Amino acid sequence: MPQNVDAVAVRAWCRLALDALGGAREEIDAINVYPVADGDTGTNLYLTVESASRAVDAVFTGLEPARPSLAEAMRAMAHGALIGARGNSGTILSQLLRGMAQVLGADTRDGRDPDHADGPTLAVALRRAAESAYQAVAHPVEGTVLTVATAAADAASGRGGDCGAVARAAYDGACRALEATTGQLAVLGRAGVVDAGGRGLVAVLGALVGALSGETVLLKAAGSGHARVEPVECADTAADEAGPAFEVIYLLEAGDAAVGRLRTRLDGLGDSLVVVGGDGLWNVHVHVDDAGAAVEAGVEAGRPHRIRITHFGAGDAHTAGAAQPPGEQERTQRAVVAVVPGEGLAGLYTEAGATTVLTRPGEPPASGELVEAIRRAHAREVVLLPNDAELRHTAAAAAEQARTEGVRVALIPTRSAVQGIAALAVHEPDRRFDEDVVAMTSAAGATRYGELAVAERQSWTMAGICQAGDVLGLIDGDVAVIGDETTDTARTVLDRMLAAGGEMVTLVLGESVPDSLADELEKHVREVHLAVDTVVYRGGRQSALLLIGVE
Q1: pLDDT greater than 70 at residue 321
Q2: How crowded is residue 428: how many other Cβ atoms within 10 Å of its Cβ?
Q3: Rounded to two decimals, what is the model's pTM?
C-alpha cells in the first residue's frame, strides 16, 4: 500500500522526532562547536520540536475520532516550531518546517484542505524547506544544517515512489552530507566532529521515515568516529573568532517591510542572523555585543515579545521581564521540584518543602513548565524529580535550560511518585549538594513501585490478554497481574512486590478508592509480612487508582 503523508503521519512524526532528539540531545550538545561552542544545540532542537508537537496535538484535541486535515496539521507544526524556536539551529529548523508547510499545507483549488500528499509532493516540500532556510539566514555557511537540508532535498528529488521511499532517500542523502561537514567547515575539522545542527536534522528526518514506514531508524551518524560524546574544546580557535557576547532571540509582530529594514540593521550589529516566519509573526535570532540595540531594533520594527538574551561567556540567561531586579529576595540554597499526579500528592510534596508541577492524565507537562517551576523555587541548587519514566527527556531538557540560567540542577530519574516520596524522606538541604543527591537517588532506586489501573480496552500485556474493565496490577511499569476485583488484585501485587523483602509499604489512594481498601491492605501486610510498616496517603483527583511503593 502506498505510503502518503496525512495528519496522523504528521502527528507521529512529531512524537518520533521528539523521542529521537531526546535520546540524542546530550550527544548533539557535546559536538556543538559552531557558530558558538555553547553546548546547547541538542537541547534547543528538542525544545523547538516539543513546541511543534504540542501544537499538532492541540489541533487533534476534541476532534477524535475525526481528525484535522494535512494542511491544518502541517501549519500547526510549523507555527508551534516558530513560536518555540530556540537557538540558531532551532530557528532554522522552524523555517525548514515552514517551507514544508507551504507545500503540504497548501489548499486545493476549490478551497478544501487535502487529506494527504504523495511522494513527489513530499519531495517538492523538502526542496521548498531547504530554499526557505537559505533565504532566512543572512550569510549562509556550507558545512552546516543548511548543507544537510539541501542534500536531503537533492536526494529526494531524484527518487520516485511513495512518501516512505522519498523520506528514506532524503534521510540517506542527509546522512552522507552530515559526514562530509567535518571537511567543509574548519572549526568542525579542528574538533573532529560533524555539524550539530545537521546531526539534529538527520534525527528529525529519521523520525519522518519511521512515521511513514513504521521502521525504527538507527541514526548512522551516531556510530561514526566524528560524533564524539565528550564535550569538545577548541583551544586553537583564534581570538578574533570568539564572536559576539550575547545571543538575542525574540518573537516579533511586524510587517514585511519593517522586517526587511530590521534585517539590515541587525546584520550591521552582529552575526548568525536568522529571521524566520511570515504573515505578521517572525522569530528573530542574532549574536551581538550590544543586546540592548538588538532589542531596540525590534521595538522600532514592531512589537517584540518573549525576549531572551543569553550571555555566552557567563553561562547564564535572562528572559525579558523576568530577570531578578535589584533588591529582590536572596535565593535559597537548595530546593526540590517535583512532578506529581493529583492534588493530594501535591499537598504532601508541598508540606515536605517541594515546589510541585501538577500533571493530569494524558497531559504531561512541557519542559517549559518545569523550567518555570525551577524558577519559582528561586534556589541556587535544585533537585528535579520527574516521577514518570515518560518524562525523562522533557526533564533533562528542562534541567539543561535551567543550568544556562545559572542554576545547579540534579535530575534524579524517579519513575513514580512513590519513588519521589522516598527521595524526599531522606532529603537534607543542609548537607553538601552531591551527598544529598546521592542519598535521594539511592532511596528512590531502592523503592519498587506498583500501580493499579482499569483497562480501557482489550489488549495484550506481559501477563496475558486483558479485557476492558479488568483491574491491572503493574509492577515497575509492566502489567504483572490481571484481576476482576480491586482488593484481591492489590493483595496479589503487594505479595509479589514484598516477596524479595521490604521494610516500608507506601499506599497512595485515588479519589474514588474507599478507605476500606487501605484498611484491608494494611491488615494483610501485618498478618502476612511481619515487621513491615505501612503508610497511607490520599492522592486526590487526577491520581491513579492506587500507587504502591515498597522500600
Answers
A1: no
A2: 11
A3: 0.72
